[in-house]
Amino acid sequence: MTSQYAAELCTLLVDDNFGELFATIFATLIQYDRLTLPRLRAYSRLPDNQLHHGLAAMIQQHLVYHYTSYEEGLTYYEPNLQSAYSLVRSGKILELIEDRLGKYAATLMSTIMFLGHAQVSYLETLPELQPQQTVTTEEDEQLDEDHEPKPEVNGINGEGEDPLPQQPFLLHPTLKVLAAHGYIHRVREAHFQSYADNVLDCERQIKARPHVKQLKGKKLEEKVLELTAEMLRERLDGDLTRGLMFNGVPRGAKRRRGAGGTDGPNKKARVDYAVDDDEEEEEENEWSDDEMGGDTVPMDAGITVRVNYEKLDVALRNRRFLDLAEQDCSPATIEVYDNLLRRIEYQTKECRDSAEIPREGEEGEQYSAPVSLAVLAEDVDPLLDLTGSIGPMEVSQPVNKRGKRLLDDDTNGADHNESNGVSSGANRPYEVDQHLSLLAQPPLNLTSKRMVHGLISWTVEFRHLARKLRHLELERMIEARYGDVALRVVRVLHAKGKLDEKRLQEISLLPFKDLRQVLASMQSGGFVDLQEVPRDAQRQPSRTIYLWFYDPDRIRSSILEDTYKAMSRCLQRLRFERSRLKEFLEKTERSDVKGNEERYLSEAELTLLDQWRAKEALLLGEVARLDEMVAVMRDY
Amino acid sequence: MSRFGAKKGKKLPGAEFTWDADPNGEPDTAPTPLFPKFTVPRARPLNPREQLQVDLYRQLREQFHDGPYYSVLKGASSSSKKGSAQRASFDPFHGMPSYSGRYQKKKRDIPYLRGRPYAVMKFFPRDDLWQTIEPNFKPGQSLDGWVPQGARTGVKRGFEVDEEEEEDAVKRPKGEDEEAGEEDLLDGDEDPEEEIVDDNFEEDEDEMGGDYNAEQYFDGGDDEFGDDGFGDGGGGGDEDTY
Fold first, then answer.
1. What's the mean pLDDT in A211-223?
2. Quick one: pLDDT band at residue B148, thresholds 50, 70, 90?
3. pLDDT, tens only, A300-337
4. Residue B31 pLDDT
5. What is the pTM (predicted TM-score) of this model?
6. Are A428 and A386 in contact (CB under 8 A)?
7. According to the UniProt entry, which residue ranges have a biased composition of type Acidic residues (chain B) (predicted)?
8. Edge to edge, what strands does the sheet with A455-459 contain?
9. Are the beta carbons of A111 and A130 closer than 8 angstroms?
10. Are residues A433 and A368 both part of a single domain?
11. Which of A14, A17, A205 to mutate to test binding with chain B, by most B CBs within 10 Å of its CB?
């Protein structure tokens, strides 16, 4: 990832978020990659004091790896591009969490981001995590009703005024929810060293073991490899989900109610179905469950937590699939798919097994954890109208098999079912299955069916879908740049492999002129390329075959670079725009003006401020969009 | 296809691209237009979700900016050291502190680390930064049960440049001694001093580019009533000759 534009982008992001000092250190580290403190001081030309403090703060924010080598005792510093890059994703992540787990969770998450990593005991003391500011009133009320009499909580810090005792109570459940989802994880010492350093360190330790020392040659290599992988897993493991999952669902996972789910009937339905209050919408309620009585203990105060970006990538990827499905499926199907993906997400730790995206065609099939149909049928909101959006049900008339009659009857049957949407409880799994089968249809194949121990289960083929996403993205780009003719040519090339011009023309049914123009312009853009295959040793042009080809891998990496570049240009533009308005913006940031702009700023200035905000939002939004492309090309 | 059809007026390869065939095309020799037609692509307006994401990003960034770590490089100010480069680049028109600057957002040039506990010290490199984070920390002692493994000798590598060696000479032996735990009693007093000395040294070095100071070479010689009279004032460096 240490390409020029990626480096530039990361430096700009650090600058945008943390200021010039961090950016200077970061840029120096990127340029020289691995430096000891004296070297870093010499290259960055920063005074000692600033450098020390800056480095310490950057380590706190996980922007810098450090490694103290065993033999020399010297400490080396390295830039952590991955976490610098994930700064750009913070908005997306917070939005996701707010959407799923509520406002307070988002506040907590942003606080953890703000602190880099933080101990739970420290989080307890922070004023901004006090509930009265952030929690919506209804949640607060709910909390009062439900948990006032808990002696345990009051025992912890019962003294003080009224809102205080609640605070750790809301904090700890929310922390637990985040941990159970895997959105935060425990910080281990190894997280501060780069991956390569960790590997080397493990290898060194393993090779020093006596029983490994006896081995030789290939056996030794294999053994070391195996043990290293094991040790690495052990060291880097910050998983906090253990013990927090309940029936494969993180505690506090908010069940999403159907779109039209008004609260009153919802509750009645719940009683009818005798679903336990595990299904309550408020996340807090889940802790009052008897079966989890032991779990009301707060989170261990000594644990240090930070944001787990890998897991969040999984969540964001699932959301992306959902968007993909939304294009041509009914809302009910989306809802079912959402449930499936949610279930899978709980069991998926990261997007890929391998560090790099495998090459096109070599990725094999990698299925997600299977989710059985029965579980899924339970998950799906019982009020969701599943029958309305799929075709007529065969179950409703098993007898009638004649063509025209069937249609009429079916329509009636469906209507009947719809009218009291809940009544179809018995064949609920079947309906869910139908929806999932709909999703499994080509061309997207969003799901796939499998039998696990004789039970019908549904999985998602991630690699296939990630590839599909990439192709869609590339095709969209090609169409936007070169038009639909080019898209057609590219598709033909992709389907057929390498083709000479004549064959290509025959298959794509395009006139020569168009074809050549399009091919030439695409070649100059780097999307297709030409291979020469000489028929004799002289390599005469007349006796050479020219084959056009389209290599998605190559294009992916070049597009990725272009995207980094575009993002960094956006940020640079933003910086320039800011410098143009510098005086004005400084005025708005004055401690007396900030917060009561209406009072101190004139009419024109207020409009200017609004304009500036809109402009900034547009540029940042563009960066976020480009980041989505980066995610597709690099992370998913 | 037509090429192999053996038509009588066989075209040359590439003939279909001649400008004659395309009445709208410009000849190759035409000057490139100064302002070619270009449709500026416009970004879609943000949808509500994106707007929310951007707002959250800005909110977090704002939080970072107001937080203790946000720091800018020191700009020129009238209070900077005389003769330094910063002083020279001071802007006399806008740089003067004024009354209206009272409400201006203060920007720190060094991250403020004291504001919060750093309970897990081992997350930070021990030799370089522990003292920065925890001013009370003495390099010799072990903190939360963690003892440095093995003897760490300050081995000087062969390829270090001269300017560093001097720093090393100031720092390293002290570091060794302290690690051996011999000077435990004095440590508390010495540490801040050491830092200050080091700092000064660094700045001086920037100015002079090393121990040798060519500008003062002759000054030192002029001063005939000087301490030694041997004219090696260049080594003296800091002494004021006037």
1. 82
2. very low
3. 778 888 899 999 999 999 999 999 999 888 888 898 99
4. 79
5. 0.74
6. yes
7. 176-209, 220-230
8. A371-372, A455-459, A448-452
9. no
10. yes
11. A17
Nearest to B116 among A92, A122, A591 (CB): A122
Per-residue pLDDT at B175: 39
Q: Per the structure, how many domains does chain A have? A: 6
Give the pLDDT of residue A132: 52
Concatenating the DSSP letter of every residue in B209-221 gives TSS--GGGHHHHH
Residues A95 and A135 in one domain: yes
CB A135, CB A104: distance < 8 Å: yes
Query: Are A361 and A435 in a shared domain?
Result: yes
Which of A72, A98, A106 is facing B155, going by the closest CB pair?
A72
Q: Please check whether residue A475 lies inside any domain of the structure.
A: yes
The type of residue at A542 is S
What phi and psi values does residue B45 have, to the nearest 5 degrees?
-65, 155
Please identify among residues 101-140 of chain B the ones whose CB lies closer than 8 Å to any CB of chain A.
103-105, 107, 109-113, 116-120, 122-129, 132-133
- How confident is the model over A250-261, as pLDDT tens digits? 665 544 433 333
| A555 in any annotated domain | no
The pLDDT value recorded for residue B212 is 62
My answer on whether A338 and A435 are in the same domain is yes
Domain span at residue B63 reads: 47-73
| Domain end marker among A57, A79, A101 | A79
The answer to the question of residue A321 being in a domain is no
Q: Does B57 fall in a domain?
A: yes
For A99-154, give the secondary structure using H, E and C: HHHCHHHHHHHHHHHHHCCEEHHHHHHCHHHCHHHHCCHHHHHHHHHHHCCCHHHH
Dist CA B38 CA A352 (whole Å): 42
pLDDT at B40: 85
CA distances from A539 to A276, A479, A500, A533, A545 (A): 78, 35, 17, 8, 10
Q: Which of B17, B50, B199 sits opposite A48 (nearest CB)?
A: B199
Report the percentage of chain A scoring pLDDT > 90.
Answer: 35
Across the interface, whether the CB atoms of B64 and A114 are under 8 A apart is answered yes
Beta bridge partners of A448: A459
Q: How far is B5 from chain A (nearest CA, A)?
A: 14
- B217 in reach of chain A (CB within 8 A): no
The answer to whether residue B58 is domain-embedded is: yes
The answer to whether residue B113 is domain-embedded is no
Same domain, A487 and A378: no
3-state DSSP helix/strand/coil % of chain B, to nearest 5 = 45, 0, 55
How many structural domains comprise chain B? 1
Instruction: Decide: residue A177, CB within 10 A, 0-12 exposed, 13-18 middle, 19+ buried.
Output: buried
- Domain carrying residue A384: 331-460
Is the same domain home to A337 and A423? yes
Task: Tell me if chain A has a CB within 8 Å of the CB of B11.
Answer: no
B67 assigned to some structural domain? yes
- Examine residue A73 and state whether it is found in any structural domain, yes or no: yes
In this complex, the residue of B70, B109, B152 whose CB is nearest that of residue A18 is B70
| ipTM given for this complex | 0.81
Report the alpha-carbon distance of residue A577 to residue B125 in Å, rounded: 39
* Sheet arrangement for strand A304-307: A118-119, A304-307, A184-186
Same domain, A201 and A262: no
Cβ–Cβ < 8 Å for A304, A117:
yes
CA dihedral A297, A303, A306, A309 (to 10 degrees): -70
Bridge partners, residue A544, by sequence: A534
Specify the CATH number for the domain of residue A526.
1.10.10.10
The amino acid that residue A571 corresponds to is: L
**Res. A575 pLDDT band, cuts 50 70 90:** very high
How many angstroms away from the CA of B101 is the closest CA of chain A? 9
d(CA A276, CA A280): 8
Quickly state the pLDDT bin for B132 (edges 50, 70, 90).
confident
The answer to whether A57 contacts B111, with C-beta atoms less than 8 Å apart, is yes
